[in-house]
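TASK: fixed-backbone design
INPUT:
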């Protein structure tokens, strides 16, 4: 009985740390380490919250799979999509450093101007994914 909570906790921590590492590597490659440190210091509470939300979704999915190996792939697709949208909306403003090369100044201005709002959109999608995953755990727990 103890195995299921350990699966949930272990995979949650692993997914959270993985998301943070991906974030740090992606932003560092696009903008350099100093910019990454500055942005993380400024927005750490958004980034960490998104990573934790993603990690919990992965943990909940692992828990679901431990209850029933035949869990629908729709569960993963929905959760994965919401997490991807959250991460993309969270990190979209870092493309500000790359997009001028592509000649899309209007998009760059728009993204950089609404950086905080994009974080909130990411958190909203992340929360929606969490609500969905919890509902799936409840559904599969009853059967």
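OUTPUT:
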């Amino acid at each position: 009985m103890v195995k299921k909570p350990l699966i949930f906790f272990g995979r949650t921590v692993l997914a959270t740390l993985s998301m943070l590492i991906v974030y740090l590597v992606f932003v560092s490659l696009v903008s350099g380490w100093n910019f990454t440190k500055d942005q993380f210091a400024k927005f750490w509470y958004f980034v960490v919250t998104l990573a934790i939300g993603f990690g919990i979704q992965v943990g909940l999915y692992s828990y679901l799979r431990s209850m029933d190996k035949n869990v629908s792939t729709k569960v993963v697709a929905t959760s994965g999509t919401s997490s991807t949208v959250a991460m993309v909306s969270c990190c979209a403003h870092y493309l500000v450093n790359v997009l001028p090369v592509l000649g899309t100044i209007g998009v760059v201005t728009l993204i950089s101007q609404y950086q905080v709002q994009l974080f909130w959109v990411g958190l909203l999608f992340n929360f929606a994914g969490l609500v969905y995953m919890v509902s799936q755990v409840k559904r599969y727990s009853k059967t």
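COMMENT: Residues 3-142 form one domain.
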